[in-house]
Structures
1.
Amino acid sequence: MKRFRPYRVNQETRDRYADVHLPVQALIYPYFVVEGMGVKEEIGSMPGVFRYSIDLLTEDVGEALSLGIDKILLFGVVDNAVKDSSGSAGYAPDLLIVRAVRAVKAAFPQVTVITDVCLCEYTDHGHCGLLDPHHDVENDTTLPLLAEMAFRHAEAGADFVAPSSMMDGQIEAIKKRLAAAGLSTPVLAYSAKYASAFYGPFRDAAQSVPGFGDRKSYQMDFRTSGQGLEEIEADIAEGAAWVMVKPAMAYLDIIVRARSRFTETPLVVYQVSGEYSMLKAAAQAGYLDEERTFYESLIAIRRAGADYIITYYAKEYAKLWKE
Ligand code: PBG
């Protein structure tokens, strides 16, 4: 008989044998930025997550930093009135997210600022790319717009640009645009991004619900098993510095496979809005112990192979870590 229970006999031994570690520096905290001053509004479907105007964003980034969180992901949330069919509010000069990047980097140069590059938050139809006359999302005409958006972010001082629209060739288009401007900002590619119902609360947060249809013609079908790896491979070939699998918990198999196949490229995993809201709601109903559940989830994502985890639980994890 092989005896395993000695590994678990008490807390001290369990700690000694635990070989999965998740430092706070491995976490990336997402922020939603809005216009205005003094704005901090809670997102209905994501208790504990807020939309901030730039002044309060900067303040909050300072608080996150004091907890050890030094990487953030920024989403711009603009008024419906400025949205148009081509998402021009996303790449005009002096756009919201550019001002946010500048403010955060000016106040905290040590914070790694990643910006989301996608049209869905800026188009009046809520899709991640331009539409053709048949209302299908058009890949190739979307590329220069994404490239322009990434250029604005990079020029403002973003440390990474993160294209999330799932257009083919977006990494290469962005890399070329940046190079033409003499910028070498690295790209964090949302590579294996599945068309997932778990993004529901995010669309409430970012006010980016598609006006019609869904995102299945560009985001991945979760009934495929190998395509995610091909997407990652293609993004690395196009010049992605870091790659991503998204969502997290239902996709641990993809994470494991990506980790073992692409050993040289940092792997980022996004624990998405729906994963957060599920735990929150269950905890608020008293069905789950929140702290233990999010801790276990994050450790599992790390164990599967994530180098970095984007999570709305970053601050709560960091507080737990401090204790
Ligand atoms: C698109 C984008 C989405 C998310 C990140 N970037 C929404 C979507 O693709 O539908 C989802 C993140 C989350 O659910 O937390 N810009």
2.
Amino acid sequence: MPDTSSSPKPMLIDGVWVSSAESIATIDPATGLANFEVAAAGAGQVDAAVESAWRAVRQPAWRDMLAHQRAALLRRIADGMDKHAERLARLQMIENGKVWAECKAQVAGAAATFRYYAGVCETVSAEVTPARGNYLSMTQYEPYGVVAAITPWNSPLTMEAQKVAPALAAGNAVILKPSEVTPSPALELGRIALEAGLPPGILNVLPGLGGNAGRLLVAHPGVRMVSFTGGTASGRAIARVAADKLMPVALELGGKSPHIVCADADLDAAVAGVIGGIFEGSGQSCVAGSRLFVHRDIQAVFLDKLLARTRAIRVDLPDAQGAQMGPIASFAHRDRIESMVRGACEEGGEVLAGGRRPDDERLAQGAFYLPTVIGGLGPQACAVREEIFGPVLVVLAFEDEDDLVAQANDSAYGLAAGIWTADYRRAWRVARQLEAGSVWINTYKQLSISTPFGGYKQSGLGREKGVSGLRLYQQSKGIYFAM
Ligand code: NAD
């Protein structure tokens, strides 16, 4: 659905659609065709957005809005997302290539996130703290004021809802900078929020490059907190700037998650879990189970099943009936995946499935890559240690529980992990020892907005989601009344 209009899509500042001298092009990774030109923010727009956000957040219309009224507004945004679900899903699909069913599910999930934070917003309480004298002491929670939300391309709307909904529920104004690869769902969210009655300036949407708009936003003295989801290198760069500003940051970063299959596991269920865990979304998921650990005794039989299922995955255009895997989100990213698979072979890895582009002529213009399984790698290989963020699974073996835990934790990352076993005692023991922010037992990628989410080690700082996901966007104040 290429856009035929010639002028770039404007950005949203202070409730007004604003153009810019700079623009970025978005490309449909399934076809290689241009989608849209989108206005890209520079220093002038970042300043204007921060100014407008501060003005808006100090207006009585927002500052004095009662929690249940803010909750009603968040619900109206959710209703708007439901109403425009097809359009939101299509925008995501043509910009990052995810299959239609997943795009639809992610829009529904994003609307549910707004509803969840509406509920938290009007039920979460301040506290009266135990007095140690003749006074009444309280803890009150207040917004930072203006916060920046910076999001990646793999699940744009999911991440945007996960940041914008709690930050608004907490009483902030938000400047949202979506990925340069997927700016359109965020612009649409801005439009829906305005339509729902969000005061102008409370949500500004500024597409632009990370090294320009993103960097300027993080460094801006008027931005009091940053919530970032993306790569570990970008997260580290943001944390450095935040250290200089002494500004809080929440960082949801990369992963290299271990997915473990014990000898007593239900092998068919485990195969399905492992396949979904790595190949859903073409492996472009922060929690992708990209390191498979199979007990040595069952490795041969498990691999037979896994490889048969992997080869049967239907890679197709994202809106094709029955498509299970679409393209990689960009051509540049496919190049990177290809080069990492080549590197794995040079380090002694053996491609057991995939390892190349599909033969299908219909897919030749897109950034497609087959689901890939690689065996024979040692623990130091690059493909075992580094996040590939693509449909590439490396297979490793373990002997016993101690060996398993040591290998699984031998990673700079610690975002997620999965274990398949019939022994609930073992599941509990291993889950407690794994250095990961989420652990799944006999399931994988089960995510809920009510459960805090985040990473150990290089996978991030802070936790989004849950009630504490709202507190992430507030600071506490102690208030004392002499009695
Ligand atoms: P990225 O780090 O390149 O970009 C993410 C966002 O940050 C984009 O909007 C980009 O423009 C911006 N950005 C980049 N450098 C910046 C800087 N110095 N200052 C400010 N903004 C900057 O990541 P990506 O390639 O878009 O996404 C893939 C990465 O995101 C993967 O590593 C993946 O694991 C991670 N991710 C993590 C989670 C999670 O919840 N932990 C979820 C999804 C994706």
